[in-house]
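Entry:
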Amino acid sequence: MDERKILIVDDEKSIVEILKFNLEKEGYKTYEAYDADEAIEKAFEVNPDLILLDVMLPKSDGFTVCRKIRQKLSCPIIMLTAREDVVDKIIGLELGADDYMTKPFSIREVMARIKANLRKYVKNVENKSEDEKQNGFMIKDMFIDSKNYLATINGKIIDLTTKEFDLLKLLSSAPNEVFTREQILKTIWGYDYYGDARTVDVTVRRLREKIETNTAAPKYLLTKRGMGYYVTLK
């Protein structure tokens, strides 16, 4: 496996240095950015495998950076914040972040999150079997193309993040079968993901906004109250 590149974005130099030291000790190649503009420029220049992104940054904020990076890159983004705010977490996830950590955090936990997110990302991008690459799912007028990692409705490409596509693909692989939030967390985010059910709910809501004409009366992605979510063929 090639050396994985990680971009660390934080305006606190001491935090950057600690993360850099521990990541390089684990064999990762690191890059740093200390403000929003530098973060966006460095992300597009380096094309990292994962980004650690602080919410509070000079020149702008991490949410804006996340949104702009997501327009071009699909690598995992772990948001970092000093505030234990559910609203911040939801905003970050809605803008395409994959994970969320509150400061102060232990290096051990950071490394576990990085490995879990990278493992899932690498599996999706590089380790698909040939059979999987040839598969696709047709749900009414929507086609989920596993080979090219995209979804279309009536031939129009839907702009999805990696996690949104993974969720759509998972549910579409077994139409009318209800997946619990716990099943979805384990499959999409990994067994050692530290998130909770709200992560799934936010991703579902974001996905519905992109594929449904009327989110109040969804055509594709339905909720089974008290159980979970499923894709319908009806």
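The longest strand covers residues 5-9.
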